[in-house]
Amino acid sequence: MVAQAPFEGGDILTSPLYTDPRTKDELEQKSTVVDDYESDEKRYVGSVDKEKHEKHEKEGRRTRYDDLEGVEGLEWERGDEQLEAKGDDDDPEYASIPQIVRELVDFEDDTSTPILTWRFYFLSGIFTALGAWLTQMSYFRTTSIPYSIYFVQIASLYFGRLLAGALPKKTIGRGRFSFELNPGPFSVKEHVAIVLAANTGATNNLGDYVLAPLYVYYDAPMNGWLAILFMWSCVFVGFSYASFARKFLIEDPKIVFPLTLQQVALFRSMRDSFEYDSATNKKQMRVFWYGILAFFVWQFLPEYVAPLLSSLTILCWVSSNPNVTFAGSGLGGAGFLNITLDWSNIGSSVIYQPWWVQTNVFAASVLGVWILIPVGWYTGAFNSDLYPIRSFERRTNYFFSYVAYLGTFVSLALFQGPLLWKTAKAQYRGEKLHRDRLNVIMDAYPTVPWTWNVVLFIVPVGVLTGLTVGGTLCMPVYALYIGPAFGAAIVLPMGYIYSVSGYSVSVGYFNEIVYGYIINLGGSRHPVGSLSYRVISGQAWYEAQSMLSDMKASPDQARFSFRPLGHYFHIPPRAVLWAQVWGILIGVPINYATIMWICTSKADFLTGKTSDPNKQWTGQTVISLNNQGIQFALVGPKRLFADPAYQPMLYGFVVGAVAPFLLYGLHRTFPRAKFNLFSLAIFGSAMESFHGNISTGFFTKYILGSVNYLYLRRHKYEFWKTYAYIFGAAADTGLNLNMLIIFLAFSAGKTVTMPHWFGNNAISVERCFPRA
């Protein structure tokens, strides 16, 4: 279920995405004059508009910063600078824009700023190719090779400024085929476009689901050009889907894409530290660089020297009883009260994901890991006495993925239906529903013609049809047209969840079962056919999600992290689209070359013929996907779910269809109880994320997330606004840099293991030693 109430009445002040930074007592003050307040760093001068405050009280609203009248609204003085809250609630162009956006985003624009310069193509090409290579290798390895988008953001700024300062002003070429060697200062729009391209292309491509099994297990490698066309086509279909959801998710100013704001904060701080003599920006960048250094150095401890720090098992320290150690162990048990000091188990989602999202995830983790897993372990329930705990995880994954999938559609219809219908009617009539300042700025630029989206859909589908008819994709033609249809259907509901929560819902399990049933209509039951269907349907959705978030303001560090970057930095829609297309044109051939290099040079490791002494090139993902293809294409879901252990899994669809009506009724009856903030999609998706006995992290994440939102954001808002997103970006960057160095130094060539000691016990790194 999605976050309904925040937008139900169209008032951002009721949204969990907005938290007034002042205390209740401060808001209830009725005095018409606020005396000058002085401290070491800041001074507020202004007065409270009493009439406006009382009016808002009667309406049940909170008075916001912009309701305080002073010099141009709110004015803070910190040494040599002024930080001003932009706009006013009485101005319709600003009233609907969330406060944090009004504080981070610039509302002025220069339409003459160059964007797609040769520097863009040069730098984005390099960073995209590097990321596509590194990330694609992770698909085949036991340990992943990180490629942080923050690295691209940092490095491209320095290289862009270097090129702008060193190269002469000179025209290269003639006429239409000419360009300026130095088009002027390295603009923020160039900078953002480079990151957009890399965020889209510097990833692995889901085409590896098909190419690797064909090569490794069936000795039927796909022709190189056909493989690249296949990978391109699946991505571009997703691009066309994104345009459908743009009116619903991008132009609505209340939908902020939480992860986007972290990227915006870093962009602004980095560039302002160069361009303005701002004390705050200098402090922000010091926090950023010191944060990178601190986390880079620290991560050597939990990742290599002392893995004990990654899973501090309190229960194991007080008892060696096997039942107790299972409950406490985070590496093989339930992880009850387990604490982690490893940032790779935490991540910056504790900062950018709304607290109601983190509460949904924590509740799911408690139910799945602290309740259901121990019940199965101790009592033999759920056939746990017959099947290993890993099998129970597999079954819960199916059940809750079905709950999340169908529950998303029903919840969206119940809670957001009127708003979506209003938007759809406005779009059909050619009306402009949102007239906020950001949309007004973007109106100066031509939109992407609908014919471009038609081409982005028709041409790739034509290519995929040819590949299917020719037998290359090992599936019947009718399945090809069903796959994109399901991919298109989920863009709006799943995109809505991601846009308000920063949480990405997986759709793979549903695509598996759909193919398993439709293949009964006839055609090849080759296992790779199931994987081809998953790629076509799934890649289209994931690329649509990634493109939407790039449109709004920022890319996700993981992969699916978004017109936000384009919207918040006022980049023309056509330039955003081309930057993304350029990233894919560069990234996919690199993906293909990497896949073929690994399949050729590591084939014996991937098939299991030879054991990799480093235990890295195991191809565990390839093995798992091939097994899934066999299960759903050859065996089929009908026979699979005939097993008594798997029969209850299909009831997930029933729960997903019925539960939203119950929650909607409770919300309408008890609106103050916030039943609308219970999200079936997020809860169900989190329930399927218990990764085979690895249960450390979620308890620590919830503690930190609660401190971040309930204390820092509520009571130390100025501090939080200035440093929270910067800190999160620094921590993630330091982690990724550390993991890259560890990979290159200790496992890329010869494996160098850490000697065993107290913090790296040979039997149990977390020192859980149950009695025999």
In short:
The protein is mainly α and 772 residues long. The chain is built from 33 helices and 8 strands. Mean pLDDT is 79; it is low at 1-50, 55-83 and 551-563.
Shape: globular
- Give me the Rg, rounded: 27 Å
Q: Which structural class do the helices and strands define?
A: mainly alpha
Distance from first to last alpha carbon: 46 Å
- On the 0 to 100 scale, the average pLDDT is 79
Beta strand %: under 5%
Q: What level of helicity do the residues show?
A: 55-70%
Instruction: Please give the number of β-strands.
Output: 8
> What does the main sheet amount to?
2 strands, antiparallel
Low-confidence stretches are 1-50, 55-83, 551-563
Please give the count of helices. 33
What oligomeric state best describes the polypeptide chains here? single chain
What's the arrangement of strands in the largest beta sheet? Answer: 1-2
Task: Describe this protein's structure.
The chain has 772 residues and is mostly helical. It has a domain at 25-84. The chain is built from 33 helices and 8 strands. A two-stranded antiparallel sheet has the order 1-2. Helix 7 (149-166) crosses helix 8 and helix 24 (527-550) packs across helix 28.
